[in-house]
Design a protein that fits this description.
InterPro entries: DUF7781 (IPR056683)
Number of domains: 1
Oligomer: single chain
Protein name: DUF7781 domain-containing protein
Helix content: under 10%
Largest sheet: 12 strands, mixed
Order of helices and strands: HEEEEEEEEEEEEEE
Pfam family, one: DUF7781
Radius of gyration: 23 Å
Domain DUF7781: 14-185
Number of helices: 1
Length: 188
């Protein structure tokens, strides 16, 4: 067995196939926030690049108090109104979010729930995270990114007819999925 061959005696793949980092975001959000009387009123302009170009506007109202775990969202283009809980941590890595909503154009009311985590994937390991950067007072940038990876694997054998040392290189696919510019005005 050739120690340089991949699994199932395939030819080794190129470094470009093993490691891929995409820095072109598929979502760009511009958020304007105003804090008044213990509430945050926001206008979100959301631009989506993939899989097709799309634009959404959202009006968001939520309390600033960490004990109040809800937010109200109105989407004028789709005529949707939703009342959502904030993400409620069930464990260190598992969150629950529930909500109820009404669509005026369809005259339909319903509710949703979602379990989410920053870890997990389909047969591979995944990390999803948001990183915030304060540019100056009232201006923040937030980056949503993910990394799908398979860790390298080392193995070997003696006296079995297999290679003494074998290495599977692993894979990494990372992407910058979302960039948010957040402008906040606080009443002092």
């Amino acid at each position: 067995m050739d120690p340089n061959s991949g699994p199932n005696n395939e030819e080794p793949v190129s470094w470009d196939e093993l490691y891929n980092i995409n820095l072109v975001p598929s979502e760009l959000f511009v958020k304007f926030r105003k804090e008044v009387e213990g509430f945050r009123l926001g206008v979100n302009l959301e631009f989506y690049n993939a899989p097709m170009n799309d634009f959404q506007t959202k009006l968001v109202l939520k309390p600033l108090s960490p004990q109040k775990r809800w937010k109200f969202i109105y989407e004028p283009i789709h005529q949707d109104v939703r009342l959502l809980s904030k993400k409620i941590p069930l464990t260190k890595f598992l969150n629950l979010q529930v909500g109820i909503g009404h669509n005026f154009s369809l005259n339909a009311t319903g509710w949703k729930w979602k379990l989410s985590t920053c870890l997990g994937g389909d047969g591979i390991s995944r990390i999803r995270n948001k990183t915030s950067l304060g540019v100056c007072e009232g201006v923040d940038l937030r980056f949503g990114w993910k990394a799908d990876y398979v860790l390298p694997e080392f193995s070997g054998a003696v006296g079995t007819g297999e290679a003494l040392f074998k290495m599977e290189t692993g894979r990494l696919q990372a992407s910058l999925d979302r960039v948010e510019a957040i402008f906040t005005h606080r009443n002092e």
